[in-house]
Amino acid sequence: MSADAAPDASTEVSTIRVASLIARLATEGQNVSDPKALIREVAEALRELGVPVERCMVGLQVLHPQVRVVSWSWRRGVDEVIEREFDYSLEEQPIYLKSPIVELRQGTPLIRRRLVGPDAKLDYPVLHDLVAEGFTDYVALSFRVEEGPGNAVTWATQAPGGFTPSQVAALQTLLPVLSLLLEVHAQRRISRALLGTYLGQDAGRRVLSGQVRRGDGERIRAVIWCSDMRDFTLLSDTLPGPALLTMLNTCFERQVWAIHRNGGEVLKFIGDGLLAIFRIDEREGAEAEASRRAVIAGIEGFASLQEENLRRVGQALLPIRVGLALHIGDVEFGNIGAPDRLDFTVIGPAVNLASRLESLSKTLGEPFLLSAAVADALVGTSLPVRALGPQAIRGLPAPQPVFAVRL
Fold first, then answer.
1. pLDDT of residue 52
2. Do the domain assignments include residue 99?
3. Across 17-21, 286-290, 328-332, least confident range
4. Quick one: 188 and 215 in the same domain?
5. Where does a domain end: 198, 224, 242?
6. Residue 34: alpha-carbon gap to chain centroid
7. What is the pLDDT of residue 204?
């Protein structure tokens, strides 16, 4: 039977064929490329078994700082499986509070609802929507993965008689192997998300690809971004902890938005400081291009902070002030640290100079400084750069040309 052929709702599903499908999924399912392909394959295989599924929805909790739930929706006859992400506010919204998922999370393993006929029970808003689309029966099953409860898969059919008992039993029998395969994909997603969040996207990819030994790394050329928040020590002594954390997070958020928007990569937060890079490849003009993007990111970051400060003044909150410096240089990019505690970062004299240049911005009263190397790379652009003349920089034997960006 083809996947698109509508099976007879009265067909009894063979337990032998269900067991065969489970065995196939157990051996081959981990090789399926992504959850979309997995859900499509399972739904179509069920139809071949004689289970008249025409709609499937999977909701999976994930460990992510911003995303609470990922869902996938399959419809028969629709090529694309739709993926959606929901943040932590989902659990406060009517779409969740009035859904069967709440009952499933409370321990109910199965919810069955006939949608037409004398036994129809439409006690959830989603069921009214399904009736309007011609569905006749609905089954929701809960399952667990390592991250905890709250995961669900729902099936619906438009078959005139709904699901038969053996078809519902097939959906239940298939659930353990399906949940295990979804857990594999969830773990992959969590690994990518957490490594990208804590290490940066490129560093996260490197770690996942096997660059995990201490000392693994490479020499790269980059524009180095060093910034920190002004008066942080004073703020730490005067503000309550939660207010200080909120202020610091806002400070970082506005900068990171601008860095990512312009192709930079944030490597780490050091107290109230931020270290980022804009990579320079071997293409002609790449150094000028990376410098231009880094300066534009700085300008946009300061503009975003200024916008935030206007809001803060209206709420009688202290403004957020930042100092920033950019420098170009060759750095070692890779794993450093102790055998059981590693960090993926950049090190080298160029990083040290960028940090000392940022410290100089406090002395000069200029929030945004550039080294001569960055200023030289910007020659011919219309960016608002002005020379401040030679300045003494800690650790260097002679004064160095320093430049400022007008904001």
1. 94
2. yes
3. 17-21
4. no
5. 198
6. 16
7. 67
For residue 14, what are its two tokens? Answer: 């063979």
SS3 212: coil
Given pLDDT bands bounded at 50, 70 and 90, which one contains residue 10? very low
What DSSP state is assigned to residue 98? T
Instruction: Tell whether 181 and 227 lie within a shared domain.
Output: no
Structural contact between residues 41 and 168, judged by C-beta atoms closer than 8 angstroms? no
Do both 243 and 329 map to the same domain?
Answer: yes
Q: How far is CA 273 from the centre of its chain?
A: 22
Is 345 within a domain? yes
Q: In this structure, how many other beta carbons lie within 10 angstroms of the beta carbon of residue 299?
A: 19
Beta-carbon contacts of 28 under 8 Å, excluding residues fewer than 6 positions away, are: none
Using CA atoms, how far residue 206 sits from 18, 51, 203, 209, 345, in Å, is 40, 43, 5, 5, 12
Do 167 and 252 share a domain, yes or no? no
Q: Give CA–CA dist 222/53, Å, rounded.
A: 54
Q: Are strands 273-280 and 217-229 parallel, antiparallel or unpaired?
A: antiparallel
- Amino acid 235 reads L
Same domain, 380 and 299: yes
Mean pLDDT rounded to a whole number for the chain:
87
355, containing H or E segment: helix 349-364
Best CA proximity match to 320, nearest among 226, 229, 258: 229
Q: How confident is the model at residue 149 (pLDDT cuts 50, 70, 90)?
A: low
pLDDT of 5 over the 70 cut: no
Report helix angle 241-261 to 286-314, nearest 10: 150
Cβ pair 239, 347 in contact under 8 A: no
Residue 4 forms part of a structural domain: no
Q: Average pLDDT in the 376-383 region?
A: 92
